[in-house]
Amino acid sequence: MRKGWYLLVCLFVTLCACTNDADDMYGMDGNVRSGEVEERIELSATEVALDYFGRTVVVDAEGTGWWISGIELDGKMAYEPTQDELDKLAETGSLKLTCDWLTIMCRDNKIMISAMENGCEERTFKIHLQSGDNAGAITGHQSAAPLEGPWPNPLRLSIKDVTLDEYGRMVYVDTESKGWWIYGIEVDGKMVCQPTSTEMKRLAETGSFNVTCDWLTVMCRDNRIMISAKKNNNDERKFKIYLQDCNYSDAVTGSQDAVSPTGPWPDKIHLSAKYVTLDADGSAVYVDAECKGWYIYGIEVDGKVVCQPTSIEMKKLAETGEFNVTCDWLTVVCKDNRIMMSADQNRDEERTFKILLQQGDNTSAITGRQEAAF
Fold first, then answer.
1. What phi and psi values does residue 272 have, to the nearest 5 degrees?
2. Which are the contacts of 310, defined by CB distance < 8 A and separation ≥ 6?
3. Which of 42, 155, 319, 351 lies most in the core, judged by the most C-beta atoms within 10 Å?
4. How far apart are CA 209 and CA 226, in angstroms?
């Protein structure tokens, strides 16, 4: 009899234990409990939509211990964070990732998603999240720009109206976007240049382009548009460069001043030296100019023009004799018709520079070199 009671008690205890396990798995309502990733991440949204400007949307993640394990763009895995990035996110809760056109920032348990402006077709993304052995994701898409504008500055041009001086010295227009091309160039109101489809495709893919249309030259390299012209001895002349990026269109409008019919212009710029040498420590050397009214219109460093003062800076230098600029490793300071050149310490190979000066129709230059430390 005792043995029977003992067996009944053991059976009751076993049933209770099974019931507790079932409650842990299914809950009181009989439904399966959510996985660990939902308990620990608790996203405020798992699907998001960006407008074609790519303005930021925010997803709150209330849990802790999660990380981003990968990013898909248009159905293809495009990015997998490094271990250092994962460690930083785990330690600080902060991380910034840029993957092609998509940018993701994590801070204070918020996931901020933004994108570059989209002038083409709708595009999609998927942000993979991990928490222990459990996985989750935020899926999203970005709409495309409408086929018709207006758009304020779709190609993010640094300037849309430019002026060349009478000598046609080069001006620059930078653009933050990629994949654009030039489809036409007007000179004095007439369309004189229309690149071929091959040229437009190459410009969109490589960012490189070079064409001369009558008196105007347009070059593109690394998302920079470089515009120059022949000297203008007649009336003011105008040009317009038309750009396109999928559904977006934009233009750079410009003019070139004419040479002033009146002088006077001095015969030359009287420099005390035209060739200088800096020591390896970059100690200052000086060149005096006897005449006044000159200005610096360009500085070359190691064979490349790295500094072109604005028209305001050139005018100020001509009127006041004062100027101060640092171009890469070279510093040029002007005061009281004295040009002072100095440089950073040079521990590599010999390097060169050239300072281009102008006054009226007269040009001159200071050519220099810096020795290398042994």
1. -70, -20
2. none
3. 155
4. 10
The one-letter code for the residue type at 33 is R
Confidence grade of residue 136 (pLDDT, cut at 50, 70, 90): confident
Q: How many CB atoms lie within 10 A of CB 103?
A: 16
Distance CA 296, CA 315 (A): 10
**Listed residue (44, 43, 45, 41) closest to 63, CA to CA:** 41
The residue whose two tokens read 């092609």 is 100
Other C-beta atoms lying within 10 Å of the C-beta of residue 174: 12
Query: Hey, what amino acid is at 97?
Result: L
108-120: average pLDDT: 83
- What is the token pair recorded at 334? 């002007």
| 59-99 tens-digit pLDDT | 988 766 778 889 999 999 988 888 888 777 777 778 888 88
Apex CA 346: angle with CA 321 and CA 364, to 5°?
Answer: 35
Closest CA to 281 of 342, 340, 332: 342
The pair of structure tokens assigned to 281 is 């420590």
Distance CA 84, CA 66 (A): 15
Distances (CA, A) of 209 to 196, 198, 253, 359: 12, 11, 18, 32
Find where tokens 């840029």 sit.
Answer: 98
CA nearest to 41, candidates 57, 65, 70: 65
303: left (phi over 0), alpha (psi -120 to 50) or beta: left
Q: For the whole model, what pTM was predicted? A: 0.42
